[in-house]
Design a protein that fits this description.
This is Pectinesterase. The active site is at residue 201. GO terms for molecular function: pectinesterase activity. The model is unreliable at 1-7 and 31-37 (pLDDT under 50). The strands form 3 sheets. Strands 4, 5, 7, 8, 10, 11, 13, 14, 16, 17, 19, 21, 23 and 24 form a 14-stranded parallel β-sheet that branches. This protein has an 11-stranded parallel β-sheet with strand order 2-3-6-9-12-15-18-20-22-25-26. The chain has 339 residues and is mostly beta strands. The protein contains 5 helices and 27 strands. 49% of the residues are buried.
């Protein structure tokens, strides 16, 4: 299923057009050659599309494709483990952005599960959906891992979404799990108006990501943590920035834990419900990290935003200090987002 040379191009950015299947596109969906005409693959678990499964649609995308391919996923629960390899960039997952819960990709692996070779999967391989390609985007989809972590349980890490590619955009998606829900592993990513749910370290990894206008919902019964960022050196260009998010749910949780000596997580203009442990942050029992991590809050509100009980080594930012983290400049969005 190749492209002619004249069709080949690389569009080095993501735009709103990449996130929608418009009227003209929908009209073409009745053609069986719709993929070659408009780069759309329809997934319908009931048999009315080009593929019954999401993975089947990904498998139809040619290796090293240079054009945007829109995978239009009709409502339903797709119980499958999905992998997009690094050799398949420019893929969109598109559901209905107003009915995110109608289109669900769901699986139930956890870190202690054993693969066919008798080896434990580990956290990395537990992901329901793993995205290793660049310029991926998604809207109107729920990514889910249905494992319910037991506090203190062994090997209960269960990733709903792993993002290891560079330059990914998620708009109005839900990412649902308990322990280690979102593995934001490497690359620059933008999460806008998303809903992310979990209990322990439910956003973690080495990524450089902006979370804007998101809901971060804790389902912890007692204790837990939102962000566990991993950063080994002071010049690592990574970190998690949460801007204008709503933090709510249950339990008494930490804003972040220092997974790595230079872990970086910043909350700005967020509304924080009364679910935060007063200390706010953990050094992961490595006191030396108190001198090197970048943890802090700026102009947050809500009962959980009271910083009087915070650990003394969390940061108090001036506007000038926090400004680089407040918008797409943080993820170099001007280079790869046209929104």
């Amino acid at each position: 299923m190749g492209f002619s040379q004249s069709e080949a191009y690389v569009k080095g950015f993501i735009s709103w057009d990449d996130m929608k299947v418009d009227g003209e596109d929908r009209a073409r969906l009745s053609y069986r050659d719709s993929y070659n005409r408009s780069r759309i693959i329809v997934v319908d678990k009931n048999g009315g599309g080009d593929s019954l499964t999401v993975q089947g649609a990904i498998d139809m995308v040619p290796e090293y494709n240079t054009q945007r391919v829109k995978i239009y996923i009709l409502p339903g629960i797709y119980r499958e483990k999905v992998h997009i390899p690094s050799s398949k960039p420019y893929i969109s997952f598109i559901g209905n952005e107003n009915q995110i819960s109608d289109t669900i990709i769901s699986w139930n692996n956890k870190a202690s599960d054993i693969d066919s070779n008798g080896v434990a999967l580990g956290t990395y391989r537990s992901a329901s959906v793993a995205i290793e390609s660049d310029y991926f985007c998604a809207t109107g989809i729920t990514f889910e891992n249905t494992v319910v972590a037991v506090p203190g349980g062994y090997g209960m890490q269960a990733v709903a979404l792993r993002v290891s590619g560079d330059k990914a955009f998620f708009y109005r998606v839900k990412i649902l799990g308990t322990q280690d829900t979102l593995l934001d592993e490497t690359g620059s990513h933008y999460f806008y108006q998303c809903h992310i749910q979990g209990s322990v370290d439910f956003i973690f990894g080495r990524g450089k990501s902006l979370f804007e206008d998101c809901v971060l919902q804790s389902i912890a019964r007692r204790s837990g943590a939102i962000a566990a960022h991993h950063r080994d050196f002071p010049d690592d260009d990574s970190g998690f920035s949460f801007v204008n998010c709503v933090i709510n749910g249950t339990g008494k949780i930490l804003l972040g834990r220092a997974w790595g000596n230079y872990s970086r997580a910043i909350y700005s203009y967020c509304y924080i419900d009364n679910i935060i442990t007063p200390s706010g942050w953990s050094d992961w029992n490595y006191p030396d990290r108190q001198k090197t991590v970048v943890f802090g809050e700026y102009m947050c509100s809500g009962r959980g935003a009271d910083t009087r009980g915070r650990v003394p080594w969390s940061k108090t930012f001036t506007y000038e200090e926090v400004r680089p983290f407040l918008d797409m400049q943080f993820i170099n969005g001007h280079q790869w987002l046209r929104l």
